[in-house]
Specification:
24% helix, Quinone Oxidoreductase, Chain A, domain 1, binds zinc ion, 368 residues, single chain, disordered C terminus, 11 helices, alpha/beta, Rossmann fold
Length: 368
Amino acid sequence: MLREVGAPLVVEDVELAPPGEGMVAVRMAATGVCHTDLSVRDGTIPQSLPAVLGHEGAGTVTELGPGVTTLAVGDHVVLSWMAPCRRCFFCLAGQPELCEHGIDHAFAAPYGTANGDPLWCALGTGTFAEATVVPESATIRIEPDFPLEMAALLGCAVVTGVGAVVNTAGVSPGETVAVIGCGGVGLAAVQGARLAGATVILAIDRIAAKLDLAIANGATHTVGASADDPVATAREITAGRGVDHALEVVGLSSTVEQAYALARRGGTVTVVGAGAGDDVVSIPAMSLLADAKRVQGSVYGGTDPARDIPRAVTLARTGALDLERLVTRRSALRRDQRRVRGHERRRGRPDPDRVPPTSDEASERSGE
Ligand SMILES: [Zn+2]
Ligand SMILES: [Zn+2]
């Protein structure tokens, strides 16, 4: 849990309230770590504290609050941090990812206590824990034979990255795609581009190891963001035009501007990364007209969790999505670990002594 903005995460025993009206208790099996957790930790995303972080997880329903009708104790569920109300303007317009009330429950009331202090649930999900309490509408039931560890990734990274490509950008077979930022969401976008039939998938990152991961996830070309010239590379492999679709999965004005430069005339620029409120993107007005590029944001990959998470399960079962490829390391949440040191760069093997990373990965800014 996070007790103060910028502080290391700490492990504590907490008391969760029993599930209220329309809420369910879930025993967590696994959680992913997303860049947005770091944005909560560094104060970019406001949050009442102390709070349990984590918002992409899966587990087993253990208790139903009054009025819950679609779940039973023992059901396996993926948690969605967006819990669409299905009644507001945006839900009715078919954009549940923009639901006006989708995370109201995160701010409504503390969901437990930590050492006597009111305890909050970041993004209304709180998956960095053995258990959580969420609205029924934040759960998507999955078949019991689907591995919960893999299912955890479907709650944010996979649907955000794949959805940005499929739902927001609308990539068609034979098109060309560039992805800036190869963290979990960026790699999911690379897989989404492969799934959509893109013939050129150019992955861009500052870190060479992430480019290797991008290749493993289906990138056809890679280019280093700092040493090389991604725009020149994109032009070389697209007959001088630039890519049909450029996706920014970092959250900086400089990389949004780079995505704009990567896209061909008439192409799309899709912003997936969560940038700061005072970081202003600059695009020449003449180019906005004459180059006719479509610049658009993609919240949660334009995902309807009730539609897209079951779809992702099916795609993973067929092998069209390779969830195991998105896992760079595993670690345990250790009860006896009171203070957690962050930032170690070890990959490729399980490390049971670590809980999810906490520290200066925020400065890495290379995708969620
Ligand atoms: Zn996330
Ligand atoms: Zn709504």
